[in-house]
Each structure stands twice: as structure tokens, then as C-alpha cells.
Amino acid sequence: MRYLAIDLGAKRTGLAAGDDVLRIVQPVEVLMVSRGPALMDALAKAIDRHGPDALVIGLPINMDGTEGAAVTDAREFGAAIAARVRLPVHFHDERLSSFEADQRMSQSGRTHREKKELRDALAACAILEAYLAR
Question: What angle do CA 29, 84, 2 make, to 5 degrees?
Fold first, then answer.
């Protein structure tokens, strides 16, 4: 099964693709769109381009394991995108995914701007890798 992972952000949303056979995950793009109808449209187009069988959306669970308003927002977003694209949506804890993305880029030689542009897609990679490893 081919998955598209989504790391939701207020201004940037990272996407990563992978499958459960080879378990190879790669960053595919960062959508530079604020949350709302425009993000739904951009995400629907990205889903069409990448052709996943299912989506994995990161859940921003608090470090102490509790769920706040951001988790509720992510779940509502997941239900809305699932209804729009008619794909199953799975959720996975995204704690430390941005930290892991930063760690992956720490010795990359990329500029601050290049790292910023790639960070959200790498965070989506971390979410999908953890989901597939579960």
C-alpha cells in the first residue's frame, strides 16, 4: 500500500510518500499555503499527483501525552480531506518529528533557507517512517 504523509502547518504543509512493502520513505514536497480552503485544494491536487492508497496525518500530541486543541484540529482536517478525496486517513503521533528533521539536516551543508524549505517534508518523512515501523 502506498501512503502519503502530511505534516500540517499553519503556513507550510510537508508531504512524504512511501509504501509498506519496501518501507522506503521520501520527501515529496512542501505546500506553501495557509490552512483553509486553499490548502484543501492544494492538498487534493498533490494527492492526485502522488496517487496514494491512504493518508497518514501527524497528530501534534503534547510532550506529556495529552491531546490539546491542535489534535482536534488535525482530526477534523483529516475527516474533511478524507471526505473530499475518498481515501482512508490514519493518524500518527508527530512528537519530535520536526526535531528529527532538523537532526537529519544538521550536517547537510544547506543554507538556513534551504533547511527551512525542506524541514516540513522531512518531518512528514519521520511521521510516515514511525507509522510504518509500528
Answer: 50
